[in-house]
Amino acid sequence: MIDGYDTAALLTGIAISFGGAAAIWAWAWWAPIDGRVRRWAAARAVPLTEATRPYVTTRMRAARRWRSAGVGLAWTAPLLWELVHRSAYADLDAWVVPSLALALYLSGAVAAEVVAARRLPPGRAAMDAREVAAYVPSALLRWPPRLAVASVVVAGWAWSIGAVDDSRAHPAALHVVVAAAVLAGVGASRWIPGYIVSRRQPVVAPEMTRADDALRSWSAHSCLGAILAAQMALLGQQAFGLAYQVGTPLRWALLAVAVTSIALAIGTFQVASGPDWRWTVRRDLPSGAGG
Predict the structure, then answer these.
(1) Is the pLDDT of residue 145 over 90?
(2) When comparing pLDDT for 256 and 101, which is higher?
(3) So where does this one cross the membrane (predicted)?
(4) How many CB atoms lie within 10 A of CB 197?
(5) Which residue from 57, 105, 107, 129 lies 20 to 30 Å from 115 (Cα-Cα)?
(6) Is the pLDDT of residue 139 over 80?
(7) How far apart are CA 138 and CA 36, in angstroms?
(8) Is the pLDDT confidence value at 90 over 80?
(9) What is the pTM of this model?
(10) How confident is the model at residue 87 (pLDDT cuts 50, 70, 90)?
(11) pLDDT at position 117, please?
(12) Residues 193-203 pLDDT 10s
């Protein structure tokens, strides 16, 4: 026995958790990516030439590695949470661990786009001001503040319950922390995509400009999709946690909200960042460069 755990079960859990993370990272570094690159280019009408193919491949491989880092951390997070907080927060594990794991995965997705934007060849400033709204649908920009308002409302509800019942004070405080994270997503949804789309354009041939702008659009969609998905997932986890602080009539409604929010979170990120979905770059490009 190790600190109340069955030794064999603990070691098995550690092996599965960290072994799985290692396998994920190995796949991200060495698995072929040519098929994904071809699907991505075909969906966006980007020609894969001797110049554009390595450029797109390097960019997509870097994105996959960073996303896999988030997946690996998400895979190990439940075990680490159990080892560190088992005694103090056992009653919260059911809704804290999933949101923690998903947040780590989505953080890796956002980091992938930010790091990739920093590792581009020397470029020139654009003649026109690039706005995020020219690269992504307006709905992706409108929803982060709305989800933040909903999260604050849920946190206030949980806090009011905690004020009446001291035994529920800690869950209420956790709701406030989650609401603060959702609010932070509003700022991230403005700054990070803005940073990506406003970076300098590499001084290259027209087909490279086309590929670069398609990558810029894909990055903006991936970032906003990840941020929206994180907000939805956190809101869903809030609803799940609140469901066990209220009476039966409201419990089922909150559980339905939780399940729907998490399902929408997964679907939103997959649609926004997948290689097979074509998101048109709506900004007008110079002749011969645009998509």
Answers:
(1) yes
(2) 256
(3) 12-30, 69-89, 95-117, 147-164, 176-197, 218-240, 252-273
(4) 23
(5) 129
(6) no
(7) 27
(8) no
(9) 0.77
(10) very low
(11) 65
(12) 888 887 766 66
Lowest pLDDT segment from 62-71, 101-110, 124-133, 239-248: 124-133
Residue for token digits 């056992």? 90
Ramachandran region, residue 273 (left: φ > 0; alpha: ψ -120 to 50; beta: rest): alpha
Tell me how far apart the alpha carbons of residues 72 and 65 are, in angstroms, rounded to a whole number.
10
Average pLDDT score over residue span 117-140: 64
Average pLDDT (71-99) is: 61
Integer CA distances (angstroms), 189 to 76, 144, 192, 241, in order? 27, 7, 6, 25
Residue 240, classified by CB atoms within 10 Å of its CB into exposed (0-12), middle (13-18) or buried (19+), is: buried
Long-range interactions of 185-188: CB distance < 8 A, separation 24+: 185/144, 185/147, 185/148, 185/227, 185/228, 185/230, 185/231, 186/144, 186/145, 186/148, 188/110, 188/227
Per DSSP, the residues of the chain read -BTTB-HHHHHHHHHHHHHHHHHHHHHHHHS--HHHHHHHHHHTT----TTHHHHHHHHHHHHHHHHHHHHHHHHHHHHHHHHHHHHHHGGGHHHHHHHHHHHHHHHHHHHHHHHHHHSPPPEE--SS---GGGTS-HHHHHHHHHHHHHHHHHHHHHHHHHHH-GGGHHHHHHHHHHHHHHHHHHHHHHHHHHHHHHSPEES--HHHHHHHHHHHHHHHHHHHHHHHHHHHHHHHHHHHHHHTTS-HHHHHHHHHHHHHHHHHHHHHHHHHH-TTS-----S---TTT--
Rounded distance, CA 172 to CA 187, Å? 24
User: Which residue type is seen at 78?
Assistant: P
* CA 93 – CA 87 distance, rounded (Å): 11
